[in-house]
Amino acid sequence: MRITYQLMACLVTLVASAAAAATTFDKQVDAEARGVVEISNTSGSVEVSGWDKPQVSVHAELGGAVERVEVTSEPGRTLIKVLVPGHSWGDGEAKLHVQVPKGSELHLSTVSANANVSGVLGVQRLTVVSGDVVTEIAGADLELKSVSGDVKVRGHGQSARLYVSSVSGDVHLEHGAGDLEISSVSGTLAVTLDSARLVRARTTSGDLRFEGKLTRAASFEATSVSGDLKVRAPAEGGYSYDLSSFSGDIDNCFGAKREKSGGVGHSLSGTLGDGAGHVRLKTMSGDIELCDRS
Amino acid sequence: MSGPEERKVKVNSLAELPAAIEPGRDLWPAIQARLKSAPLSQAPSRFTRLRWLAAAAMVASVAVGVWIGRDLWPLPSSGTGAPPLTAQHPLTEGAAVNAAYMSDPRYRRERAALMKSVQAQLETMPPQTRAKVAASLAAIESAKKDLENALGKDPSNALLQELLINTYQDEMRVLTDVHEAGDAGRGI
Asked: Which of A34, A181, B73, B173 is a plausible cystine mate for B101, CB 3.0–4.6 Å?
């Protein structure tokens, strides 16, 4: 009799555990080829990929604390939202796999969930608190804000307007093109652009490493307080350059000699080629290095 | 030399003078050629010079304004008592108020409100994230101090002034980003 009770108790525990364990969720809704898809997930992961179908497909593996996944569709807009009771951050993981029409505009917000986006050709607006982001961009604009997560952006050399900001995460951007505004407080910015027309970069203590070809009459400005600025930028039509640092070193690969300014600090300015564009690099204590060769 | 001699002829009334004196040759082609060849910048007018003077005065007054404004901001080392912002010493309301260096009341209000909101959000973040954000805000605080110290040695340094203003702007951007990121967990 006693053994029977123990067996029943084990069975109840197993059933309860199974109920609390991960469940799956699947849903598919019609969507416009160039509609907006909005995804919100607190923790876990989000994987988004573009496909040729005019539909949004959602597959999710849900942790026990997740209340439900809402998928709503209206003309031009699909909303996918993971609901966690209490709205507390990091409580209740969901692993989302979402397929969207490849021309979609993607709005994604996560807290501690990692995000991976591929094959989406429309505009991307991504907001992440502490998760890492990996995304692929085409010729559409990107707005990416990360607090502490690391960011990797891979382009295909198609011109777009790119805005990337991070507080403490590192940013790695490769094969971008067009206009770039990028900033970080303490994260490292590593950027390679196939062609750049306008670049604005700002860091507080993080370093900037830039490599890319500037278009004719391009404008490049970067400032840092204590981070180093290392820029390798050949340019069609050359550029005028203006480098200044309060206490950091200034170096270049074209043999120009730095001069001491009137007050404390150093500066180096001059013109390369026709001087069609301009490059301005400024730091307080960070080192500056400019090269007109890639 | 014959001209002056001719002018010495006594004239008794204006009526005796010819109505017009035509030049010996057509002068217009030469005038036109000089007008075309002379760029405007090579002939600075009084107006142009005044415009440059006005621009210089404006720049100077802005620089002086920035410097005077800076003098009005209480420096962190001037006894505000704000503890350094680290993971061990997260933001407090008192620190937020004490850390308001700018003299503009609207800026002070918005910064204090953001600090309070960000502090509340930081407490709900995963510990690792909280530590990273606190470290970044501490980096900004440290950068401001370094810049202010450097400006103390070289008060008229335009580079340092620019970097200091950038750093204040960056701090607001970070606070706004963290504030907005807090809504991410609450969905769309």
From this structure: B73
For residues B4-13, average pLDDT = 54
- Specify if A8 maps to a domain: no
Looking at the structure of chain A, the number of domains it has is 1
Whether A89 and chain B come into contact, CB under 8 Å, resolves to yes
Which one, of A86, A45, A81, A84, lies nearest residue A64 by Cα?
Answer: A84
**In this structure, is residue B60 part of a structural domain?**
yes
pLDDT of amino acid B127: 82
* A252 CB neighbour count, 10 Å cutoff: 19
The model carries a pTM of 0.72
Residue B135 within any structural domain of the chain:
yes
8 A C-beta contact, residue A203 and residue A262: no
Question: Which residue segment(s) compose the domain that A132 sits in?
Answer: 23-136
* d(C-alpha A158, C-alpha A216), whole Å: 17
Question: How many other CB atoms are there within 10 angstroms of residue B27's CB atom?
Answer: 9
For residue A67, which phi and psi values (nearest 5 degrees)? Answer: -75, -55
Range of the domain at B100: 46-186
Number of structural domains (chain B) is 1
3-state helix, strand and coil shares in percent for chain B, rounded to the nearest 5: 70, 0, 30
Residue A214 placed within a domain: no
B132 touches chain A (CB under 8 A): yes
Question: What does the block give as tokens for A105?
Answer: 């505009």
Between B47 and A149, the higher pLDDT residue: A149
What pLDDT does residue A70 have?
96
> Does the pLDDT at position B5 exceed 80?
no
Residues in chain B: 188
Record: contact A89-B126, CB cut-off 8 A: yes
ipTM surpassing 0.90 = no
Identify whether A60 is part of a domain.
yes
Task: With a cut of 50, say whether residue A223 has pLDDT above it.
Answer: yes
Tell whether A81 is within 8 A of chain B (Cβ).
yes
Evaluated on CA atoms A73, A77, A82, A83, the torsion sign reads negative
